[in-house]
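> example.struct
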């Protein structure tokens, strides 16, 4: 793993290229990754929503409906690190179905860091859905280390909400219609003390967060792959009147994969 930006003393002018490569092109420890991806200090006081997505060189956010073919071993290490830093992972129902989501697990290597931040042993999974078309017998709902939440709207099916609650799932109302309003979802989670927020999509959910102006940070893995075809981009849905501007915060590289962080301006 090499840090390309921000520039450090290891990439300062006058350092021989061979020395720089030898010092930086190595596998980082999970502690080093956690330091590199730490939430900003303001996340301790108010919600901070970051997204973690992967994209091919030609803009595909998926291949055959899943993100895994675009990923790598290091991308998955960062995926796990971002989860370990979060209070809550917010995910759309379609992504839960396609990616076979399971409960977040506690990891000993991050236990002390989470305890120092006042966090539980693992992040909460919060599923965003208007239809509540979910299988509540799956381990995500029956075997979580911390209870899974379902975010929906007030006009969603009362029968499906009751079914979720009978299964022991906490249903959170975050919209007046059948669906979830992004601003209210962020606020409702923060009210529960879940301020360090991470969304893993899918594209429609991320598009809604972008259009609503509530996405604070994007952690984007640029995969050195080309897929062609008609795959979705990482964000779909409502357009914005003026494109949202983000500033680059960091760029790491390994095996041709670029691991980037952008923050909203």
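> example.seq
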């Amino acid at each position: 793993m090499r840090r390309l930006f921000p520039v450090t003393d290891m990439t300062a002018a006058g350092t021989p290229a061979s020395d720089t490569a030898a010092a930086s092109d190595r596998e980082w420890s999970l502690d080093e990754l956690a330091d590199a991806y730490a939430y900003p200090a303001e996340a301790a006081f108010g919600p901070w929503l970051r997204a973690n997505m992967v994209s091919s060189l030609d803009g595909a956010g998926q291949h055959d409906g899943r993100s895994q073919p675009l990923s790598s071993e290091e991308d998955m290490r960062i995926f796990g690190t971002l989860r370990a830093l979060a209070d809550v992972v917010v995910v759309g129902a379609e992504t839960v179905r396609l990616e076979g989501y399971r409960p977040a697990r506690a990891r000993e290597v991050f236990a002390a860091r989470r305890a120092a931040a006042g966090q539980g042993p693992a992040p909460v999974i919060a599923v965003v859905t208007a239809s509540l078309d979910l299988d509540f017998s799956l381990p995500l709902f029956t075997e979580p280390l911390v209870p899974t939440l379902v975010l929906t709207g007030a006009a969603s099916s009362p029968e499906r909400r009751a079914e979720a609650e009978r299964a022991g799932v906490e249903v959170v109302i975050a919209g007046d219609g059948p669906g979830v309003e992004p601003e209210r979802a962020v606020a409702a989670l923060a009210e529960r003390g879940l301020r360090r927020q991470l969304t893993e999509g899918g594209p429609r959910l991320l598009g809604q967060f972008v259009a609503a102006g509530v996405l604070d940070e994007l952690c984007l893995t640029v995969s050195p792959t080309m897929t062609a075809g008609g795959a979705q981009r990482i964000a779909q849905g409502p357009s914005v009147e003026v494109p949202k501007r983000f500033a680059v915060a960091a760029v790491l590289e390994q095996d041709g994969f670029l691991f980037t962080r952008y923050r909203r301006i």
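> remarks
Strands lie at 2-5, 48-55, 88-92, 124-128, 149-152, 170-173, 196-199, 217-222, 246-254, 257-264.
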